[in-house]
Amino acid sequence: MEEFSIKGENGNYLKITFQEIFGFPEKTCHWGGYELRATLEIKSGDFTAKSSLYTSTGEIYEFYTMLRDCNERLSGLASLENFEGELKLSIQFTNLGQVNVSGSLSKVDALHNELNFELNSDQSYITGTIDELKKIVAKYGGMSGLKS
Fold first, then answer.
1. What is the DSSP secondary-structure string of 59-70?
2. Is 125 helix (H, G, I), strand (E, B) or coil?
3. Is there a contact between 117 and 103 (Cβ–Cβ < 8 Å)?
4. pLDDT digits (tens, 9 = 90+) for 26-69
5. Which CATH superfamily is domain 3-140 in?
6. CA distances (Å), origin 55, targets 79, 116, 124
7. Residue ranges covered by each domain of the chain
8. What global pTM score does this model have?
């Protein structure tokens, strides 16, 4: 299955790996594109997390366009929040190609655990992320899926 990662300094990363795509290519979801179940992995410093996550290819498409535009301008903010509100991810471009990745991962259950994370990256790592996202967008399309 497809995946994309945001690599940071000192081996830190965030990775989303697709596990199952629902409705592809016939039926899109109301969050845009196709609903999907993914595995999310985060490593930040001494902390690691691995969790399941539901999102959509439309949400990932919007994140891709924001990230691509910020990378071209070397400034700005790209964000990804899944429709269930469990993942909140922000990528802030700063001076000289530096990139700050921050966010939170939570689960709404009896325990309501939440992980806040942050990692430092730079434009050279983000270029690889954009290349991975471009392949995903080419396969699954934008907010309307493969429909034009």
1. HHHHHHHHHHHH
2. helix
3. yes
4. 999 999 999 999 999 999 999 999 999 999 999 999 999 999 99
5. Transcriptional Coactivator Pc4; Chain A (2.30.31.10)
6. 13, 19, 26
7. 3-140
8. 0.95
